[in-house]
Write a structure and sequence with these properties.
- Helices cover 42% and strands 19% of the residues.
- The protein folds into two domains: 175 residues, 2-Layer Sandwich (Nucleotidyltransferase, domain 5), CATH 3.30.420; 174 residues, 2-Layer Sandwich (Nucleotidyltransferase, domain 5), CATH 3.30.420.
- It starts with a strand and ends in a 27-residue tail after the last helix.
- Strand 7 and strand 8 form a beta hairpin.
- The protein contains 13 helices and eleven strands.
- Strands 5-4-1-2-3-6 form a six-stranded mixed sheet, with helices on both faces. It has a five-stranded mixed sheet with strand order 9-8-7-10-11, sandwiched between helices.
Length: 384
């Protein structure tokens, strides 16, 4: 079957086409992402209504490019004013199901993707399934490279063989969570941030250091030339027995460190070496808490596997530390390809497929909407 995935939860407009054959052999036929990073950079973060406006401008173009890349003819009549349910070429004939991000995310941005998916479903009589964005990140661990690169295929049954129960560390600009995955669609939230998400802390510390947005890549880059032991920053909540996180205090500690350094040295701005040392020290503190608490939780819950996902999973320090510690403690370890660490529609399509396989029925009446979607929903015992 072929699945169309649509993702507009934040500031990426993304559409993908996945093909799944036989025993869950999956091929990514296309995965198109239009980023708004440059647009929001001047604000130091994502502006919800501005993001929604850009989604409206971009989604048709991204959709058509995704179909073209996948070798399908786009439904040219869908938005041209032609009579509804007109002949739609490859889309009408070959797409079997639509999967769309339903939450959590920014309400105005989510509404664009939901409306687009439901319009396609109505025009071309396709079933549509709502996907939890965080569940999408979890399934990004098993997305193969794009077909055009090397025609690589992944057997999901092999990848998922003997991994449950698994512990998921989901880290991004909006989320920092530890989710116990007992089976397909069976989740338990065991820990989360009590204030800032780790990705948000990276963005704020980058701003304090005068680095560009988004802060994660900027801090990782400058930290390579820094001494991570130069400044002993706190490890918030590390010694507590629960698996929650807190990053507002660490961010504030960096603020005070910069203030005191400038005062003691009589400087108006810090030089590149000083900023690199602060970035490296912050990165070490932030990732160390994630790794230690994840390993500790994995031991307590007796899991077989540890999975990393979300935008911050692109951080090389975190990837290296978590993989090393997971393997040293006897856990299987999974992390997504770098291209799938950020928000994308391929992960939404794959999560939608497994929701369907687990017995969740796609919608045909299309009556569900934002009215029954809480933008703060987290993975609990079942997916959305």
């Amino acid at each position: 079957m072929k699945i169309l995935g649509i993702e507009t939860s934040c500031d990426e407009t993304a559409v993908a086409v996945l093909e799944i054959k036989g025993k869950n052999n999956i091929t990514v036929l296309s995965n198109i992402v239009s980023s708004q990073v440059k647009l929001h950079a001047k604000f130091g973060g994502v502006v919800p209504n501005l993001a929604a406006r850009e989604h409206v401008k971009n989604i048709r173009r991204v959709f058509e490019l995704a179909l073209k890349t996948a070798g399908l003819n786009p439904p040219a009549t869908a938005f041209s004013g032609a009579p509804p349910r007109a002949v739609a070429g490859g889309f009408k004939k070959e797409i079997d199901m639509i999967a769309v991000t339903r939450g959590p995310g920014l309400g105005p941005a989510l509404l664009v993707g939901l409306s687009f998916a439901k319009t396609l479903a109505w025009l071309y009589d396709k079933p549509v399934i709502g996907v939890n964005h965080l569940e999408g990140h979890i399934f990004s661990n098993w997305l193969p490279p794009i077909r055009k690169i090397n025609n690589y295929q992944l057997t999901i049954n092999n990848a998922f063989c003997h991994i449950f129960p698994a512990l998921n560390l989901i880290v991004s600009g909006g989320h920092t969570e530890l989710v116990l995955m007992k089976d397909y669609g069976k989740y338990e939230l065991v820990g989360e941030t009590l204030d800032d998400a780790v990705g948000e802390a990276f963005d704020k510390v980058a701003r304090l250091l005068g680095l560009e947005y988004p802060g994660g890549p900027a801090i990782s880059k400058i930290a390579k030339n820094g001494n991570s032991d130069k400044y002993p920053l706190p490890r918030p909540m590390l010694k507590l027995k629960n698996y929650n996180f807190s990053y507002s205090g660490l961010k504030t500690a960096v603020l005070y460190l910069i203030r005191d350094l400038k005062k003691d040295l009589g400087l108006s701005t810090l030089n590149l070496k000083q900023r690199a040392d602060i970035a490296a020290s912050f990165q070490k503190s932030a990732t160390e808490v994630l790794v230690i608490k994840t390993i500790r939780a994995a031991k307590q819950y007796g899991v077989k596997s540890i999975l990393l996902s979300g935008g911050v999973s692109a951080n090389e320090t975190l990837r290296t530390k978590l993989e090393k510690n997971a393997e040293q403690n006897g856990f299987k370890y999974f992390q997504p390809l770098m291209k799938y660490t950020g928000d994308n529609a391929a992960m939404i399509a794959l999560a939608g497929y497994f929701s369907y396989k687990a017995g969740k029925k796609p919608k045909k009446d299309l009556k569900w909407d934002l009215i029954d979607m809480d933008a703060n929903l987290r993975l609990r015992n079942t997916p959305l």
